[in-house]
Amino acid sequence: MAVLSTADEGKFLMDVEGEQIGIVTDVDTDEQVAFVDPDAGIAEAWIQSFGYGDADEDDIRVPAESVATVTDTELRVAADL
Asked: How many structural domains comprise the chain?
């Protein structure tokens, strides 16, 4: 299980096969949940990386237990969501 932080906002969420699922828009560090926008563009990724974005109602909730690895640019899930 990965530990999520606000530093993960703006990173890409990738599936087990390396396909992009979306961009992390917000992280709830207390609940250890990342919120991912599946339709985000590169401009939104930049906004999120500077900490100016928020989760929307259509974002996917990804619990930390589902995240296998965290790098400087992405979070990778352990299984299909």
From this structure: 1
- The answer to whether residue 1 sits within a structural domain is no
Condensed to tens digits (0 to 9), the pLDDT of residues 43-56 reads 555 555 555 556 56
Q: What is the DSSP string of the chain?
A: -PPP-GGGTTPEEE-TTS-EEEEEEEEETTTTEEEEETT--HHHHHHHHTT-----TTPEEEEGGGEEEE-SSEEEESS--
**Total-model pTM:** 0.80
With contact defined as beta carbons under 8 Å apart, do 8 and 2 qualify? no
The total number of residues shown for the chain amounts to 81
